[in-house]
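Hi everyone,

Forwarding the result from last night's run.
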Amino acid sequence: MYLLSKKSLWLSDGSMGFGQESDVAFAEGDIIYGRVMVDPVQNLGDSFYCSIEKVFLCTGADGYVPKYSPTNAEYGCLADSPSLLYRFKIVDKAQPETQATSFGNVLFNARLAVDDPEAVLLVNQPGSDGFKVDSTALFQVALGREWYIHTIYTVRSRDNANRGIGKRSVEYQHHSLVSSGKPGAGTKGRKKREMRSPPPLAWEIGAENKRGTNIQHVALDRTSKRQIPRGRVPPDGVLPRELNPPSSEVSLVTVVGGVAVGLLTLCLAAITVTMCKSKKGARRKDALKGSGSSKPMMPPQSHRNDSSEV
């Protein structure tokens, strides 16, 4: 099983291998692409059909690391345990109505590849199957809590492909324990056996039932959120609808640029008004000075005695 961050790699045939692409930390907002496949190196992929039946999420309490080890009575995320802080079944192919859809108010948006119209390339590969889930819900726990994804899958040969699988989940099959001996001791012993007995989900896991299980740690990157610049396409070549920025959002650079342009416009307007006022004042002064010097001074007329006058 591989946990991938690139959709294009999730949909590929896996012939080139995943290498370090499966060892990646998911930022808040990333989509976790899970993939279960028959080892392509053995060239068995075309001879078998792989089908994911259930997917679980869980995180341990007090530093506990969930692991699947039936011999040590450890069953990963498949059963409730005091060692688990949170446990969710996010995918159930046989009974989808029993799935957990959210953690708090944040949706998992978990979906099998067969239910995803965009995953046709993966669905058409008989030796592979996959699922996807949003990582946002996983960031609601405190720093230091580690999440794990646990899957149950079936691997069938082409000869048995048409036989199908049981329609009813093994979780909901009822079993009874019959005790013998004294009632008191029998009841006490039954409780002890019930606590140590494997959960119903683990009863049918094994090569004889063509059902396997795998658990993987989910590495989270809490230092950043996934951001896709407007108009750009992420490296995987697919722009998820969940990550498209809303049209109402305005970037900080746009706001700062608008404010700067507005202030510059006001400053230019103020300078223009000041220059116009100074020019008008200078013109008035020149007009006043010109009116006192350009007209000649006429001496006052005096009446002189003229001999011709009588």
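The helical segments are 7-11, 120-123, 183-196, 200-203, 252-293.

Cheers,
N.
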